[in-house]
Specification:
By secondary structure, this protein is mainly beta. It is built from one helix and 13 strands; from the N terminus they run E-E-H-E-E-E-E-E-E-E-E-E-E-E. The strands form three sheets. Strands 7-9-4-12-6-10 form a six-stranded antiparallel beta sheet, with no helix packed on it. The chain has a five-stranded antiparallel beta sheet with strand order 8-3-13-5-11, with no helix packed on it. It is globular, with a radius of gyration of 22 Å.
């Protein structure tokens, strides 16, 4: 009877020079050991597959309820050939008094590009590279009031510029947990008290993944 040969890796730390060859490294329980030498999204960003859209630096009102004119929308048009994978949401305080509440993710099926408002310039995370398939807008009009997907991790406290703790970094790592197919609008919008002329900057980071 022939004993099967098991091809494995090396257990324990080891070093090698440039251009050297090594086997895969494993732990004492047989698990693979992986070390991250570059940022987690470097590969996708360096290949030009990650995009960013931001509202105006003068700020935008986050909103008080789901409506047909969200402060920030992403539309994945028919025939794009990609899925829009939402990665991050960033919110920065600009001015005014925020109303207590939160930002929420919402969606609306829509075959046409939203109109009105302001078309946003999409920045490729590989700076200087072209935008992708999706479009982005500030205050675009969508065909119907979007429906709630879920609350975001961004909470809007009843605060203003002089409030202790501001400015604060407001960030939600969605990490691909929401995916926008073709003919769908994704929106981020406040469900909160009105406040007093509140203004924030909102940015969304997404990846376009071929279907």
């Amino acid at each position: 009877m022939t004993t099967p040969q098991i091809t494995g890796g090396h257990v324990g730390p080891r070093t090698t020079a440039d251009n050297g060859q090594v086997t895969d490294r494993h732990g004492r329980s047989g698990e693979s050991i992986v070390g991250q030498g570059i940022g987690a999204r470097h590969e996708s960003a360096s290949r030009g597959n990650i995009y960013i859209a931001s509202t105006a630096v003068a700020g935008v009102a986050p909103g008080t309820a789901l409506s047909t004119t969200p402060p920030l929308t992403i539309h994945n048009p028919a025939g794009s050939g990609v899925l829009v994978s939402i990665l991050d949401i960033y919110v920065g305080y600009v001015s005014g008094t925020l109303g207590a509440g939160s930002l929420v993710h919402a969606r609306n099926p829509q075959t046409t590009v939203p109109t009105g408002g302001t078309a946003l310039t999409i920045v490729n995370a590989k700076l200087g590279t072209a935008a992708g398939q999706a479009t982005a807008g500030q205050g675009h009009t969508v065909s119907a009031t979007p429906t709630l997907v879920r609350p975001s991790g961004v909470i809007l406290g009843a605060s203003l510029a002089s409030t202790a703790g501001l400015p604060a970094l407001m960030h939600e790592k969605v990490d691909g947990g929401i995916v926008v197919p073709e003919d769908v609008v994704w929106a981020i919008q406040g469900v909160a008290a009105a406040g007093s002329t509140p203004k924030v900057m909102i940015s969304v980071v997404w990846q376009e993944i071929p279907q």
